[in-house]
């Protein structure tokens, strides 16, 4: 019998099949849907990671006070640590004294040859006003001599700060464009904690941040002690020596701060390194989820095999009849294989639809969690793969029953009731 | 000169039921000529169906040889046997054996599809034989929507559609009342008389056996009588 005739008969078999076939198809649907959902979430995460990684410089380190073991992997870089790490040694000799990063540390860093630039910075909130409107935004004080060389941000307009600058600022584009009723532009004057600052540059980002010389920042941000920094950004000379340089810096700081690896009271992090670790963790998690989804697909396959065995049994008489009127073993085999493949195909297509809906819903359900920030991505590849896999699963699961059907002896099959 | 179409040569069929061996045929020798109308008769359990299944290539003998058009079918590969069943032999069963999910037309079409006949030609031929058995108006009915006699006519149409040389009918009237049964036998008679088919049928009913040209009588797996039917009946009208 010609292939398309076998397909036609297989198709009519599926159409005439009972509820059981549809339940089997449901098994495949669930398997494929979960694979699709997980793969698309994974690809969304991957895309998000990649876009973030590309903006990260591999030669930038951040030093901050405090240390927590297994520093929060998922927090944004620079916020890791905090003041959870209370070490007993170092500068925190007195109970009341806070663990800080200060001028002494920066001095020590300057003696390390592998370091190219050091940018100590402080950060805090400040009240701002412009043309009668008020608000509160984040203000960062930076070392204007090195900031332009160390930052990963780009300028949209104007210029970065330079050494001679005193009461001037660079602001984020969101602050410039939409914070106040009137957009802020270059050379306009903004009042921060009662002092006037002139805008010299606007960053090409979405932030509402203000960057100003650190000396000025001490005067507008509350509760900041001179020469004590919230964090220090370090640019190293050789990106390829990242790990070695980090070790070297850590050693030096541990000596200066009189701490050991156990009592360490500072964190030195590389955002790129952290991102890489995070990516590796997510991909492990993703593989794990995928494995679970694959298991459900296997369960679906077992369902197909089961249905096919039952169906062969049920159709024994028909197989006998078809053989009596001239069907070859290969005809019977093909009809049953096509039948299984069709169950797989229908299951696969419905599974893709369900999976796409699911993966579209997940980000809205768990919107703010870190993993789904990038949304999901149902790619053509995963769709094609899912169809191939589900048809393949059908064929593999149907192979043994189909072979059994084809090997039935005509007399025995005909006698079957 | 008569040419032999089917020859059984020392044929044994032994069914194994676990340890027990049941000999259904015990050394059957018979030649069936081309163009003969044979009725196989005998008591229940004498081996009639077993012999039909062997002749129809549905089963293979335990011992002995079966020649169909001088080819030994016991040595043929499966695909050749399937082709023989499809092209040379047409089956009519006691229980009609139609595929329940298909219409009468589709049932009749199926043998031609299996033989890879072109769609147009095949459907024309199927309609032709359905007309021959008088079922043109019911060809889109499923078997469940047909009477027993009509179903058997569909099954006759199916056996004829591939224009086989041999028609095998195992108790074709077994499930029908006597009037319908007679009609079926008369159809077989005409196929033999008018179309020149070789017809072999199994029947319990000695009245119906009278339509045949040759009688073969089986008893306990052996042929006890092969004889020309001297008083062959003809259909009325
Ligand atoms: N598949 C089988 N397995 C075991 N024994 C079988 C099988 N088929 C037939 N037999 C036995 O072989 C013998 C002949 O059976 P067969 O069906 O050929 O008889 P029959 O002449 O057609 O009888 P009936 O007129 O009742 O149809 C019987 O004794 C039967 O029990
Ligand atoms: Mg019988």
The count of DSSP E runs of length 2 or more, i.e. the number of strands of chain B, is 10
- Outline of chain B: globular
Radius of gyration of chain A: 33 Å
Average pLDDT metric of chain A: 84
Describe this structure in words.
The complex is a heterodimer of chains A (417) and B (237). Chain A is built from twelve helices and twelve strands. With 417 residues, chain A is of the alpha+beta class. Chain A has two domains: 3-52 and 277-415, no CATH class; 119-229, no CATH class. In chain A, a hairpin with a 2-residue loop joins strand 7 (189-192) and strand 8 (195-203). The longest helix of chain A is centred in the C-terminal third of the chain and has 44 residues, at 271-314. Mean pLDDT of chain A is 84; it is low at 70-96. The radius of gyration of chain B is 18 Å and the shape is globular. Chain B has one domain: Rossmann fold (3-Layer(aba) Sandwich). The longest helix of chain B has 18 residues, at 178-195. Chain B has a six-stranded mixed beta sheet, with helices on both faces. A four-stranded antiparallel beta sheet of chain B has the order 2-1-4-5, covered by helices on one side. In chain B, helix 3 packs parallel to helix 5. Helix content of chain B is 33%, strand content 29%. In chain B, a hairpin with a 2-residue loop joins strand 4 (63-68) and strand 5 (71-72). Chain B has 237 residues and is of the alpha/beta class. The A-B interface holds A 1-2, 5, 12-13, 16, 317-318, 320-331, 409-411, 414 and B 53, 56, 58-59, 78-79, 82-83, 85-87, 91, 93, 97-99, 101-102, 110-111, 113-116, 158, 162. Magnesium ion binds next to helix 1 of chain B. Magnesium ion is lined by residues 48-49 of chain B.
Any chance you could write out the topology, listing elements then pairs?
The complex is a heterodimer of chains A (417) and B (237).
Chain A (H helix, E strand, L loop, with lengths): L2 H13 L3 H36 L5 E6 L35 E2 H8 L4 E16 L2 E10 L4 H4 L4 E4 L9 E4 L1 H7 L9 E4 L2 E9 L6 E4 H7 L7 E2 L1 E6 L5 H15 L9 E5 H44 L1 H9 L4 H37 L14 H28 L2 H6 L2
Helix pairs in contact in A: 1-10, 2-8, 2-10, 2-11, 3-7, 8-9, 8-10, 8-11, 10-11
Chain B lengths: L3 E14 L2 E14 L3 E6 L5 H8 L7 E6 L2 E2 L5 H10 L1 E4 L11 H11 L4 H14 L15 H14 L4 E5 L7 H18 L2 E5 L3 H4 L4 E6 L2 E7 L9
Parallel strand pairs in B: 3-8, 3-9, 6-7, 7-8
Antiparallel strand pairs in B: 1-2, 1-4, 4-5, 9-10
Helix pairs in contact in B: 3-4, 3-5, 4-5
Bound molecules: adenosine-5'-triphosphate (ATP) and magnesium ion.
């Amino acid at each position: 019998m010609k292939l398309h005739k076998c397909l036609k008969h297989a198709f009519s078999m599926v159409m005439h099949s009972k509820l059981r076939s549809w339940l089997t198809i449901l098994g495949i649907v669930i398997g494929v849907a979960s694979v699709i959902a997980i793969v698309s979430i994974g690809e969304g995460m991957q895309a998000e990671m990649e876009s973030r990684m590309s903006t990260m410089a591999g030669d930038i380190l951040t030093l901050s006070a405090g240390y927590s073991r297994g520093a929060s992997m998922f927090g944004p870089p620079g916020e890791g640590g905090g003041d959870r790490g209370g070490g007993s040694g170092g500068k925190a000799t007195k109970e009341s004294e806070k663990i800080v990063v200060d001028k002494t540390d920066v001095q020590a860093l300057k003696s390390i040859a592998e370091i190219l630039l050091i940018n100590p910075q402080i950060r805090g909130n400040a009240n701002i006003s412009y043309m009668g409107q008020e608000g509160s935004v984040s203000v960062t004080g930076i070392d204007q001599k090195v900031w332009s060389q160390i930052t990963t941000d780009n300028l949209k307009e104007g210029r970065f700060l330079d050494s001679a600058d005193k009461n001037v600022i660079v602001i984020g584009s969101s602050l410039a464009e939409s914070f106040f009723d009137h957009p802020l532009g270059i050379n306009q004057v903004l009042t921060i904690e009662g002092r006037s600052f002139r805008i010299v540059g606007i960053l090409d980002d979405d932030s509402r941040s203000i960057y100003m010389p650190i000396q000025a920042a001490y005067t507008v941000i509350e509760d900041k002690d001179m020469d004590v920094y919230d964090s220090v950004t370090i640019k190293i000379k050789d990106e390829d020596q990242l790990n070695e340089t980090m070790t070297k810096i850590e050693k030096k700081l541990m000596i200066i701060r009189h701490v050991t690896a156990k009592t360490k009271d500072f964190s030195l992090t590389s955002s790129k390194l952290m991102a890489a670790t995070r990516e590796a963790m997510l991909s492990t998690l993703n593989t794990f989820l995928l494995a679970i989804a694959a298991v459900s697909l296997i369960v679906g396959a077992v369902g197909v095999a089961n249905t096919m065995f039952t169906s062969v049994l049920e159709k024994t008489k028909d197989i006998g009849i078809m053989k009596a009127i001239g069907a070859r073993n290969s005809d019977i085999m093909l009809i049953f294989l096509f039948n299984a493949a069709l169950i797989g195909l229908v299951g696969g297509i419905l599974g893709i639809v369900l999976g796409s809906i699911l993966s579209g819903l997940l980000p809205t359900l768990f919107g703010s969690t870190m993993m789904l920030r990038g949304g999901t991505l149902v790619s053509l590849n995963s769709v094609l793969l899912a169809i191939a896999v589900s048809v393949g699963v059908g064929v593999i699961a149907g192979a043994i029953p189909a072979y059994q059907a084809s090997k039935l002896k005509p007399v025995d099959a005909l006698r079957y009731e | 000169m008569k040419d032999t179409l089917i020859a059984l040569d020392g044929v044994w069929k032994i069914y194994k039921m676990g340890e027990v061996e049941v000999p259904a045929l015990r050394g059957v020798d018979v030649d069936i000529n081309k163009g003969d109308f044979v009725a196989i008769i005998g008591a229940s359990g004498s081996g009639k169906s077993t012999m039909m299944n062997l002749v129809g290539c549905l089963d293979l003998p335990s011992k002995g040889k079966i020649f169909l058009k001088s080819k030994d079918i016991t040595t043929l590969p499966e695909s050749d046997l399937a082709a023989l069943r499809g092209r040379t032999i047409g089956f009519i069963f006691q229980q009609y054996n139609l595929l329940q999910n298909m219409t009468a037309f589709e049932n009749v079409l199926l043998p031609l599809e299996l033989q890879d006949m072109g769609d147009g030609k095949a459907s024309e031929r199927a309609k032709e034989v359905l007309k021959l058995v008088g079922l043109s108006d019911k060809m889109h009915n499923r078997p469940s929507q047909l009477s027993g006699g009509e179903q058997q006519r569909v099954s006759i149409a199916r056996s004829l559609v591939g224009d086989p040389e041999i028609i095998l009918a195992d108790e074709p009237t077994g499930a029908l009342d006597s009037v319908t049964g007679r009609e079926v036998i008369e159809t077989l008679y005409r196929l033999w008389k008018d179309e020149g088919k070789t017809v072999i049928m199994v029947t319990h009913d000695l009245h119906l056996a009278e339509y045949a040209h040759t009688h073969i009588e089986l008893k306990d797996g052996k042929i006890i009588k092969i004889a020309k039917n001297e008083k062959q009946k003809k259909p009325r009208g």
